[in-house]
Amino acid sequence: MEFTGADFIRGMSLLGAGLAMGLGAIGPGVGEGFAAGKACEAIGRNPEEAGLLTRTMLVGQAVSESTGIYSLVVALLLMFVI
Amino acid sequence: MEWDSTIWISAASYFGAGCAIGFGAIGAALGEGYTAGKANENLSYRPEMSGDVLKTMLVGQAVAESAAIFALVVSMLLLFGGAAGDNAFHGIKYLAAGLAAGLSAVGSGIGAGYPAGKACESMVRQPAASSQITLMMLIGSAVTQTPAIFGLVVAMMLIFAGMAIEGALDMWKFLAAGLVAGLSAVGSGIGSGLPAGQACEGLGRHPETRGQLMLLMLVGSAITQTAAIFGLVIAFLLMFVDFGGSPYYPYWAALLGAGLSTGLAAMGPGAGGGIVGAGACDAVARNPESQRPVMTTMLVGIGTTQSTLIYGFLVSLLLLFGSFSESANYVPSFSLLGAGLAMGFGGIGPGIGEGITGGYAVRQVGRLPERATLLTRTMLVGQAVSESTGIYSLVVALLLIINV
């Protein structure tokens, strides 16, 4: 089997893409889960405010998601652009 | 394999870019999620404060995001910045830059998210003090970004400073520099956030103690930066000291071990110092007159938690500057690497444990300032027992180094 330099770069890029997305998914997963759990607790305590609480939860989760999106972008760049 | 050097450099750059954003995204997202959760939890108590709470939440999350942005910037530089070098070994500098920027963002993200969440909680408890709480949060979380900035500085130096790599041995010193800069920042990042969060909570309970809280928070957070600073010193030593004349075996392991020893060992004391600082802020919020004994006990408590950091630093220096003769086989290399790992991992537990002890002790000093001496003595005895495994690690590391 022929192992060229271009193959090596491609291989390391794809491995880097995998690490980028894999590790990058940890934080948003845990963080957004905590936010959602607290939102449930809050709605349980105050059901009339469910709209406000759900909205706030989604805004907060969106900010947490942003770093996950950065990881996705870098992974896609590594897979398709580099 | 005989390839053009650009192939190795590009491959390492791209892999480093993946590592940078991969690690960098973890901390910020964790911290921001915590903030969002706390904001929501407390919004259920006072829904009419949604405007203010949302503002504080977003501002706090923005500070936590900054560490991830540093990592993203380094990632983009590694992808598109045109990595270049004289020989194939230069690739390791870019990989190390990715590790430095990525790992250092883990701690700072978590450390900035925690005070933001506590600030949201505090604002709802004490709406009249909202603006003061937000200010305390901003000052506190700003300090938590320092370790991420250290990591960014090392990453930038690795990418741009054009340091020469002559042989295979120099690869290991740059890899170790990236690792130590990244790892040592994790503990300090988390540790600086803990006093800030507790200060925000204390401000909500007792708004009149603002001055004392600010002082204790800043002193506690600042001392917690020692871990990141020691890591930075080892990173600079690794990057700028010339190891050219040393034999590859066992020096590759000595350099890697030096990086891991301080890098890993800094994680415990960094976080542990923060736990003590948080206890101090809690104590002084409940009892402002106890500021003096609380400050003393906090300083003593944080001082002892840093002990394993100093052991790790010592082992790093021994590995960097000790003279090891060229080895005939692999055994001395793994002995030195084992020394680095022994002190590195061994520094984590005692650092956190002594921090927990100090946190509880300093809280009780706040309740009973006249018994401060007794409490400090008990704290020191307890911390000394916790230290024991740190001492065992140091002894094992020294034996592994000497017996090479």
Secondary-structure blueprint of this entry?
The complex is a heterodimer of chains A (82) and B (404).
Chain A: H1 5-24, H2 26-45, H3 50-81
Helix pairs in contact in A: 1-3, 2-3
Chain B: H1 5-43, H2 50-80, H3 91-125, H4 130-144, H5 146-160, H6 168-205, H7 210-224, H8 226-240, H9 248-265, H10 267-286, H11 291-305, H12 307-321, H13 331-346, H14 348-367, H15 372-402
Task: Describe, in plain words, how this protein is organized in 3D.
- The complex is a heterodimer of chains A (82) and B (404).
- Chain A has one domain: F1F0 ATP synthase subunit C (F1FO ATP Synthase, Up-down Bundle).
- With 82 residues, chain A is mostly helical.
- Chain A is rod-shaped and about 65 Å long.
- Chain A has helices at residues 5-24, 26-45, 50-81.
- In chain B, helix 12 runs parallel beside helix 15.
- The radius of gyration of chain B is 22 Å and the shape is flat.
- The model of chain B has no long low-confidence stretch (mean pLDDT 93).
- Chain B has helices spanning 5-43, 50-80, 91-125, 130-144, 146-160, 168-205, 210-224, 226-240, 248-265, 267-286, 291-305, 307-321, 331-346, 348-367, 372-402.
- The relative contact order of chain B is 0.10.
- With 404 residues, chain B is mainly α.
- Chain B has one domain (5-402): lithium bound rotor ring of v- atpase (Four Helix Bundle (Hemerythrin (Met), subunit A), Up-down Bundle).
- Classes of the chains: A mainly alpha (82), B mainly alpha (404).
- Chains A and B meet through helix 1, helix 2 and helix 3 of A and helix 1 and helix 2 of B.
